[in-house]
Write a structure and sequence with these properties.
The complex is a heterodimer of chains A (79) and B (586).
Chain A lengths: L2 H16 L20 H15 L14 H7 L5
Helix pairs in contact in A: 1-2
Chain B lengths: L6 H9 L7 E9 L6 H9 L4 E7 L5 H11 L5 E6 L2 H10 L6 H21 L3 E6 L13 H4 L1 H18 L3 E4 L1 H8 L1 H4 L2 H7 L5 H18 L6 E4 L10 H4 L11 H18 L3 E7 L2 H7 L14 E5 L3 H12 L6 E5 L2 H10 L4 E4 L4 H11 L9 H21 L4 H7 L3 E6 L5 H10 L3 E2 L7 H9 L3 E10 L2 E14 L2 E9 L8 H15 L4 E5 L7 H10 L2 E5 L2 E7 H7 L9 E5 L1
Parallel strand pairs in B: 1-2, 1-3, 3-4, 4-5, 6-7, 6-9, 7-8, 9-10, 11-19, 15-16
Antiparallel strand pairs in B: 11-13, 12-15, 13-14, 14-15, 16-18, 17-18
Helix pairs in contact in B: 2-11, 3-5, 4-5, 5-7, 8-11, 13-17, 22-24
The chains are: A mainly alpha (79), B alpha/beta (586).
């Protein structure tokens, strides 16, 4: 799976959750660096990762959902 | 299985510009589990019905408080309240309660839930409530015995109580979460990690299916469900190409395994017709050849089940457009199914408001999609729904007859039309409500209503409601028009006037205005004020008023047509007469 594709998915999920235009997301981004990436966007991301990749985020992995690198690790993507 | 929507499709939807012609609605969400991200998914599915929705979401876990607020406010507004729940919340809570005994406590919690909702419903008759039926739980402690004395039995009883609420209150509809969760399977329905982290209990697929299903219920409440299904024939209604294989060799009925699948599909389509959906055929074929397919005794559908058919070699979009004109229905009320990707693309491109369903191999694919997308969702089946196919067929006969007359007036007279008008009385207020909510083309203000509102117009002396049915030599069309509004001093102010497209070009409009003028004269009313909101769909209605050549002016910043009763009555014989004899019941 391409890093670029996942970055695009994260960006558009955050955008559709916040109702604001998509922002460019890079590997170093997280909830702390992207204003629109709030808790609601995280809920939407969890649902999107489940329906797109069949990945149910485990409770222990909650923290991974708050950064791009964490999501890449969840998806087993090397970056 | 075809996915109902991908994340990409949903995100693209949010990048597009908002379509201004959509019907806007606001839905209040009262919830005891997290509603997000359903508020992002539901608008995507509602757009298929040309509806745009915004959600007013209550605070998390404040269901009882919000219900109480609703009861206290006793708002007299027409609005939709959706109550968002999942059984997960109650299962966990039932065992948290001190001294609880599993299902007994669950029973108490759920009884309490139903009781609170019941109070809110009776306190707010003008609010339209949408209630979920509860899903089955992910675990059952006592195995199969739970169905006799445990969670499963409790949930089934509570669901019966919720259905009863809908049966007894016209302002309640149910959303069958129990069915939707069963369809995708309970193991696929819940995401307990998501519940633990976000109090959002559904999986990604669960959210998509939930949203699609709830969107179709919302669309049906405001009369936006689809009305007509156009079908391709080869490999859609039967297996094989009738022109190549010959009618004896197509797969149809239970003689072959492939034919059995088409029998299931045909049976589904026939059931749609039987509950009031109009069927049409759009097929590229030789007409005579194609008809032979329906002569096979194994065919469940007969040619007579279709109200209209265009079987030729012309582009399908053009044929569908002609059939819609003939049926007096809008493009957005239609669904088209075809296995051929090129045909699907052609219709999608030329008729963007028509909902097009393509499929790969098996007819079961399109049946599943039709079902999951809920295009033909309905809250009840009325007598009018049951007679709809026949009515449209009768209309075809009327059109045939009109061709025999060179003068349209002679044709109208030959129909021997008679109308029964009802002033402030109604034998069927539900039909009146449905007509107001389902009609787009002859609709002066686009105002939607509820059964309780309609009853107010009938019973309040400062308000009025006039409805009418139309009979002719081909049968009874039932209630086909409704006008309602206020009586203000010497003015009759029309809140909305709708008329079924089935009776367009029959001078019924003139008969309605004549009856309104006669009643106004009796009541000492001098003017009839008709506020008018022009939309992309009510052109027929707009042209009618423009051709009346009456004054149009702004009153309280609303564009209105003004009918001076005395002048209007004096002109009727020469200008705006009708070819309908009528009787006023009051």
């Amino acid at each position: 799976m391409e890093v670029k594709l996942v970055l695009k998915l994260i960006s558009s999920v955050i955008s559709s959750s916040s109702g604001k235009p998509p922002v460019e997301i890079s590997l170093s981004d997280s909830m702390e660096t992207i204003e629109e990436w709030d808790s609601l966007a995280t809920v939407t991301l969890a649902a999107a990762l489940d329906s797109e990749f069949g990945i149910s985020i485990e409770v222990d992995d909650l923290e991974s959902l708050s950064s791009v690198k964490g999501i890449m690790q969840l998806l087993n993507i090397s970056f | 299985m075809n996915k109902l929507a991908t994340i990409e499709e949903i995100n693209n939807f949010y990048q597009q510009e908002k379509n201004q012609s959509f019907t806007n609605i606001e839905i209040q969400v009262i919830s005891d589990v997290t509603f997000h991200p359903l508020d992002r998914y539901i608008p995507f599915f509602l757009s298929k019905f040309e509806v745009s929705a915004s959600f007013k979401i209550g605070l998390f876990d404040q269901l009882n408080f919000d219900l109480l607020e609703l009861t206290k406010k006793n708002e007299n507004l027409n609005k939709i309240v959706y109550i968002h729940t999942s059984i997960i919340k109650y299962l966990v809570r039932s065992n948290e309660a001190i001294g609880s005994q599993g299902s007994d406590s669950l029973q108490k919690l759920l009884d309490n839930y139903v009781l609170n909702i019941k109070r809110a419903i009776s306190a707010s008759p003008s609010i339209q409530f949408i209630l979920n039926l509860f899903e089955l739980p992910p675990f059952r402690v006592r195995g199969s015995y739970s169905a006799r004395a445990g969670e499963i039995k409790t949930i089934s009883q509570v669901n019966d109580a919720i259905i009863k609420l809908a049966d007894e209150n016209s302002n309640v509809v149910i959303h069958d979460l129990n069915y939707i969760s069963s369809r995708i399977g309970l193991d696929n329905w819940y995401d307990l990690n998501s519940w633990a982290m976000f109090k959002q209990p559904f999986s990604g697929d669960g959210i998509t299916n939930f949203s699609s299903s709830l969107a179709s219920v919302i669309a049906s409440i405001i009369g936006k469900s689809k009305k007509v299904l156009f079908c391709d024939l080869d490999n859609t209604i039967w297996g094989g190409i009738i022109g190549d294989d010959g009618h004896q060799n197509i797969h149809i009925g239970s003689n072959t395994a492939k034919g059995e699948l088409f029998a299931i599909a045909q049976s589904y389509i026939l059931s749609l017709k039987n509950k009031g959906i109009i069927l049409g055929i759009s097929s590229k074929n030789d007409h005579t050849n194609a008809e032979l397919g329906f002569t096979r005794k194994e065919s469940i559908l007969s040619l007579e089940d279709f109200s209209t058919a265009m079987i030729n070699w012309q582009p399908k979009s053009g044929n569908i457009k002609s059939m819609l004109e003939h049926l007096n229905l809008g493009e957005n009320s239609s669904v088209f199914i075809d296995d051929n990707k090129a045909e699907v693309a052609e219709v999608l491109r030329s008729l963007p408001s028509c909902s097009v369903i393509g499929f790969e191999k098996s007819p079961i694919e399109y049946i599943k999609l039709l079902d999951s997308l809920g295009f033909f969702e309905t809250q009840q089946v009325t007598e009018d729904d049951l007679n709809r196919s026949k009515n449209y067929k009768d209309n075809s006969l009327r059109t045939e007859l009109s061709k025999a007359f060179s003068d349209h007036d002679d044709f109208l007279l030959s129909l021997k039309m008679e109308s029964n008008f009802y002033w402030n009385i109604s034998n069927d207020p539900q039909r009146v409500t449905d007509l107001v909510n389902k009609t787009n083309q002859f609709n002066t203000t686009q105002m939607k209503t509820t059964l309780s509102e309609i009853k107010k117009y009938i019973n309040n002396s400062e308000l009025f409601l006039l409805s009418a049915e139309l009979n002719d030599i081909y049968g009874n069309n039932g209630i086909i028009t409704v006008v309602f509004g206020m009586i203000r001093n010497d003015e009759l102010y029309i809140d909305n006037w709708v008329m079924s497209c089935r009776v367009f070009n029959r001078t019924m409009e003139n008969a309605v205005l004549e009856v309104l003028s006669l009643k106004s004269k009796d009541l000492g009313i001098k003017k009839i004020i008709v506020p008018f909101k022009v939309t992309s769909k009510n052109q027929y209605c707009h042209s009618y008023f423009q051709n009346l050549r009456i004054t149009s002016k702004k009153i309280d910043s609303v564009q209105c047509y003004v009918i001076i009763v005395k002048d209007y009555l004096s002109k009727i014989k020469n200008v705006n007469g009708s070819k309908i004899s009528f009787k006023i019941n009051q």
